[in-house]
Structures are given as structure tokens and as C-alpha cells.
């Protein structure tokens, strides 16, 4: 909070003008750096839940949360940017009324949020968060409802990150890996999850043909990881074919190249050498 002048109403007005100025400068900086349009947009709660897969929710009551953990909103508000700075003068009257109350030390009711992992999404209280941040606070009281999802929200920064999470969720529904296997199979390009899902399903179909019996998805996923993915990744690492890729990315690349070049599903040293020569 800046040094008060002794006139709370004037200080509240200055708080708003300063927040608006910072928002305009931030938007200009984003444009000059040619950053994606979504870097200053709050994450939409419902899109996040859809990408991660809803499981359940539990209301846990009032908690003190950090302001920098609030990254999104339920109502897709356009009145504030990602850092809750006002995007126009439309909210000024209400904003300054709250800022004045805060500077006078009046009680401010808790905001209401959803919690996913360590992230918070505002249900009610955008103006209160904006004022708190403008006045230099780091925490705020909130009534919290915890939402559990199929995927962990770690790695989500911008709206564009939801695409990868959504494709990963669909991949894990097709290939229900668990534990270490689940954590090990990661690709940066969302489309690679679709390709990898097709590849594992084809591998599982060949496995069922070889064994002459139906095998459920969870068993196919685990056997693919143990009998195909893990030994192939070990060979690729030994042959120095992984490079800067993730293990799953390297596996998918060589699996596709192997079949395109050699028309086989087998793995041996000859295959690895042929693939190395194609780099």
C-alpha cells in the first residue's frame, strides 16, 4: 500500500488510477513483446474443469489464501485482467468504495472461490481481490470449495495450456495408466497424445491376437508400458536417440519412423541403427 495522504477518499481514488495505469502499461508491454493474447486473460474455471475432468467437490469453509494463487474466474469477467487490474473505468465507483472501506479499516467480507490443486478461481469477489492487490496485500480471506479433478492442474499458466491437459485427459481415458507409468508418459504437443493413444490401442489389438483372448484397457496400458515402452526407451537412451525430447515423445517418433521406413513392429539393434542413420 502506498503512503496514505491522510485523506482516505483521495487515497482510494489514487489506488484506482494507479491500478488502471498499470493495466494499460501491461497491455502495451504485451503487445510490444508480441506475446499470445491469452497471457493477460483470467483462466475460465469451467474450461479448466472440463480439461482436467471433474470428480467431486467439498466445501471446507473460510481460509486465508495467497492472492497470487488466484488465477481464474467462474463468470469469464472482462472487467479485470489476469492480475485483477481494472480494464476500464466501468468498475470505478464500486472499486473505490471498497478501497475506501479497506483504508478506513472496515470489515470486508471473505471472497468465495473454488480450489483446484493449489489454484483458486473466483466465484464472487473480483473487486475485493483487485483492491487488495492494488493496496499491496499478499493474502485474503476466502470461503473455499475444493474441486477434485482427474488430472493435476500443475503446469497450467495460460488458457492455451488447457489444450494439452484436455488431450492428456482423453489419452488417459483410452490408456488408463497409473502410478509411475502415468507420470512417465508425457508429450508437449497435444496432438501427440492422440497419436500415442492410437498407437497403444493398435499394440493392444496385436497383443490380444497373439494371446487369443480379450484384455481390458487397464491391463493393455500397463503391459504396453512394461513390455514395450520401458525397454524401448532404455534402448533409445543407450543409443542416444532421446536428445531434448521427453521419453514418450522419443518413443512415438521412433515407433512411427520404424514402421514408415521398415514396415515392422519388432525392435532390435538393427532397427535402432537404421533409425539413428535417419536423424
TrEMBL record:
This protein is called ParB-like nuclease family protein
Gene source species: Amycolatopsis echigonensis
